[in-house]
Amino acid sequence: MCTVTYLPLEKGGFILTSNRDEQTIRKSAIPPSKYLLNNTAVFFPKDQQAGGTWIVTSHHQYTLCLLNGAYVKHERKENYKWSRGQVLLDFFHYNDVPLFIKEYDFVGIEPFTLIIVEEKERIGLYQLVWDGENTHLEKKDAEKENIWSSVTLYEPQVIHDRKKWFDKWLEEHPLEKRNEITDFHRFGGEGNPESNVLMNRNNIVKTVSITSVISSQDETTMQYFDILADQEYKIRSL
Length: 238
Known about the structure:
Strand content: 35-45%
Radius of gyration: 17 Å
């Protein structure tokens, strides 16, 4: 939930990919599966420790992805109301971005950034930030590429460097090669394991998985790479 990229596809659709950087002592997530939320079929890997998720998709409806933190690094409180990973699942009780922001009770939840891809007549891309006191909604250009890195793990210079690496990768990969984005999530960087896209800080905090949602006209696919177990999973929704 700490590095996220968004790519529009040539014939419509998109690819949203997330590296989950976590403490290695945390229980491994349950691989993606199908669940029913408010009569909506959704697909997500489940966090065993808190029961939520950091990425979820519903076929040709909504795809959400979470990053820890808002605009700047915050000081953690001892207790919060519930896990930020629950917020993504709660969204499907609203299935509407403005209604969710208006009705949902964010108070008592740790700051986060939520990327929302909405699939209607046209794709909508939103960045929802909860800074611990207020929500901030920004509509992004869904026809342009984007990258986000969590402010809780990465200093501004590292976030800037990652944007530079991403821009270089885009220059080298035309639209027809965008499905290779997981290579960027595996190998992007300049050889420093602490700041590489696939990061490792003394085996205490490291990238534990890569999840990619590919939405095309025909189907939605979630690919999940469990880095620690060296296993790959794929689930499709037609």
